[in-house]
Amino acid sequence: MLLHRVLPFSKRLLSETVLAGETVVDATAGNGNDTEFLAKLVGDSGSVVAFDIQHEALDATAERLGELNNHVELILDSHAKVDQYVKKPIGGAMFNLGYLPYSNDLTVVTKPHSTIEAIHKLLGLLKKGGIITISVYDGHEGGPEERDALTTYVRSLHQGDVHVVRYELLNQRNNPPILVAIEKVREFDEVRCVDNNNS
């Protein structure tokens, strides 16, 4: 199949850019699906730093990882504080926005401000040619606002620094996820934002 669903396509992009031995970030550990994928991708010589603000999520992730836990660092904190925990370049990062699937409390959701702050900081850490993928779920309360804030932010990123794509399946029911992928095309420490992409 040429047209992938959002989550497989996100993993495909990272599989093509992340190298064994690199450090990568799972900004929203959730139930550990992406953390496990990233841990296998970087191998025993690499490392994964995974964030979540819910003990429940990190417990589920640790249980899923099993022996892979030895090269994964699970952080009970906001991904907006990524720069306090990650000091070296990263090969890539993943986000799954929204709430923790199967949680008893679906009111705990990702927020526009912290999501954008985390992406902004991760772009400074990302290697040239690296990719950040953001799977956006907007079917819950606050979801459309986060989607729109994210879209406004990534549209403002300077085209000389990054390339941004939005990928979605248009004929799916029940608020299917949208994938935003950001590729870093030149080395920089400070992210440049502009009024429009023609600057």
Automatic annotation (TrEMBL):
The keyword Metal-binding does not apply. Gene3D superfamilies: Vaccinia Virus protein VP39 (3.40.50.150). The keyword Methyltransferase applies. It comes from the Bacteria. It holds the Pfam family rRNA_methylase. One of its GO terms (biological process) is methylation. Keywords: Methyltransferase, Transferase. GO terms for molecular function: methyltransferase activity. This is Methyltransferase domain-containing protein. It comes from Sporosarcina quadrami. The lineage of its organism: Bacteria, Bacillati, Bacillota, Bacilli, Bacillales.
